[in-house]
Design goal:
alpha/beta, DNA polymerase, domain 1, Beta Polymerase, domain 3, 6-stranded parallel β-sheet, 5-stranded mixed β-sheet, about 15% strand
Length: about 575
């Protein structure tokens, strides 16, 4: 169990205590412990082993004993009792964007509401706005949050979906009954979220393979089992389907279940124009199936080059393929640097040197340290004095570490009126400046757009960070005329990031073609708050590929000297 696991368990405990109306001092002790564990520069397990965890500020002996029990058993003492004491459905109300444990408890105590559906009805009936500390605007926001939750209910972030898919693939691929195997659906197309995992496998013994599938350790419940399809619910809550076919059917089934529906409709129409029929079982001329060894052969039979799964969204990929204009999509190996990462100077979990060494081990030749600025007090944002202390440390790391250059950067807050959190003279001293919004999300589209454009036009801003502030499956971003922002970025040669954090994944891939058309450079940034977070680059690259980006479109695919020349050129 690592520090992140421990912090998450402590955070859950504080939430459960808040929902149960426990003593506020005890709740605060757990909340404070979350931060202290996150800030530790060494594994908490080591402190437990040598009996010194209670020497950490804010962690007394009793709490240290409870954390030791967590590491030993996987559970904090009392957590099950707190869960059992809650009405069924109350925990689910925490999923509503903008509702914390304190407000959920207040709603339950005042109105007896303990599930999301009843919450929505209470908002519509005007009951929530009458509660102390709520009001009409809060009730409207809660209702919008409920609608957002219900719209996305049953979906999972790409990290969860891809991990589940990879684990299943690793389990199945070496089984003796497997001939060919591939993950399909939205996971293969690298969508931001997915409802389930779909796997297609060719086999001569589907019954034996189906039995092996339901015996997978991660299966929680079997919901269907036949000769061609087995359906399960995994322990994560995700559904997974295994489709079993003969090997000569594999290419057609793989293409069909990869989707999307729009892409498949266009492909069927293309087959129809040739007097053929395309479905999940084959490409047919009359009753005769046209033999295709793989997907490359299937596309070729329809006079098309192979179209990468990420592009199969019915967004003009067929026409581009027909005209031989398909992009040569960017891959992770093209990237030379990683930008917009955080350290222990603000809210990160690793030091400058640790982040640089991990980036070097991943093959990067530069890394941009971009901790928060002072307005982000909740994230331990840096003032000018602390920034300069960090620069001294960066200089020391650059002197001692070969093979990688650490850039002096900042994630400067865009204030409510579009001004920045540091003055221009100070911003001019940074190697790289990322500007982002972290507060005052309640804006009209015009207000938000004007605010962002003002920041983009600042000559010292190199990159616009996570443009709309959305958190997938948690909150909508603030309204933004993204095309107007892209136009402004093109005028000022400001880059717009793809934030590779699986909870963000924006700039939305649906705008990438417009940004590319306008010549706006797109860095793929991890926004990593730990060395482990640097691996999120994979998810950002998937989004870049969905948007048709090539190596030349991606800012951190540039060599260091070229990258620095670009961001330092006059705007």
């Amino acid at each position: 169990m690592n520090n992140k696991d421990i912090a998450l368990a402590l955070e859950e405990m504080a939430t459960l205590m808040e929902l149960n109306g426990e003593n506020s001092f005890r709740i605060r002790s757990y909340s404070n412990a979350v931060r202290q564990i996150e800030l530790l520069k060494e594994p908490a397990t080591g402190l437990i082993e040598n009996g010194t965890l209670d020497s950490v500020r804010g962690i007394g002996s009793k709490l240290a004993d409870n954390i030791a029990a967590l590491v030993d058993t996987g559970k904090l003492p009392g957590v099950d009792d707190l869960k059992a004491a809650l009405p069924e459905g109350l925990l689910g109300m925490l999923d509503v964007p903008g509702l914390g444990a304190k407000r959920v408890r207040g709603i339950y105590e005042s109105l007896g509401i303990s599930d999301v559906d009843a919450l929505a009805k209470a908002c519509e009936a005007g009951e929530i706005e009458k509660l102390s500390g709520f009001g009409k605007k809060t009730a409207q926001n809660i209702l919008q949050g409920v609608a957002y939750l219900q719209k996305h209910r049953g979906r999972f972030l790409s990290r969860t979906a891809q991990v589940e898919a990879e684990n299943l693939r690793d389990y199945l691929k070496d089984l003796p009954d497997v001939i060919r195997l591939e993950v399909t659906g939205s996971v293969r197309r690298k969508m931001e979220t997915s409802k389930d995992v779909d796997i297609v496998v060719s086999t001569e013994d589907p019954l034996a393979l189906g039995e092996a599938f339901v015996s997978y350790d991660g299966v929680d419940e079997v919901t269907g089992q036949g000769e061609t399809k087995v359906s399960v619910i995994l322990q994560s809550g995700m559904s997974a389907d295994l489709r079993m076919v003969a090997d000569d059917e594999f290419p057609y089934v793989l293409h069909h279940f990869t989707g999307s529906k729009e892409h498949n409709t266009m492909m069927r129409q293309r087959a129809k124009e040739r007097g053929w029929k395309l479905n999940e079982y084959g490409l047919y001329e009359g009753e005769k199936r046209i033999a295709c060894d793989d997907e490359v052969g299937l596309f070729a039979a329809l006079d098309l080059p192979y179209i990468a799964p990420e592009l199969r969204e019915g967004q003009g990929e067929i026409e581009a393929a027909e005209a031989k204009r398909l992009p040569e999509l960017v891959i992770e190996q093209h990237l030379k640097g990683t930008l917009h990462v955080h350290t222990t100077y603000s809210d990160g979990r690793n030091t400058v040197e640790e982040m640089a060494k991990e980036a070097l081990s991943l093959g990067y030749t530069y890394i941009g340290i971009c901790d928060h600025s002072k307005a982000a007090a909740y994230a331990n944002g840096l003032n000018e004095t602390r920034v300069r202390a960090q620069w001294d440390e960066i200089d020391q790391v650059n002197e001692t570490l070969d093979g990688i250059r650490v850039l002096k950067g900042i994630e400067v807050d865009i204030l409510g009126d579009g001004r920045l959190d540091f003055d221009d003279d100070f911003l001019a001293e940074f190697d790289v400046v990322v500007a982002s919004i972290h507060s005052k999300f309640a804006m009209t589209e015009k207000e938000a757009t004007d605010r962002v454009i003002r920041a983009v036009k600042n000559p010292h801003v190199d990159i616009l960070g996570h443009p709309t502030g959305r958190l997938l499956l948690a909150r909508e971003g603030y309204p933004l005329d993204m095309r107007a922002v892209i136009d402004a970025a093109a005028e000022t040669q400001t880059a717009i990031e793809i934030n590779a954090n699986p909870a963000r994944l924006e700039l939305d891939w649906r705008y990438l073609d417009y940004a590319k058309e306008k010549g706006v450079k797109i860095p793929i940034n991890t926004d990593a708050h730990s060395t482990a977070g640097l691996a999120d680059m994979h998810f950002g690259v998937g989004i870049a590929r969905k948007g048709g980006l090539e190596m030349g479109d991606v800012q951190n695919a540039l060599q260091l000297e070229t990258f620095l020349e670009g961001i330092n050129s006059p705007k």
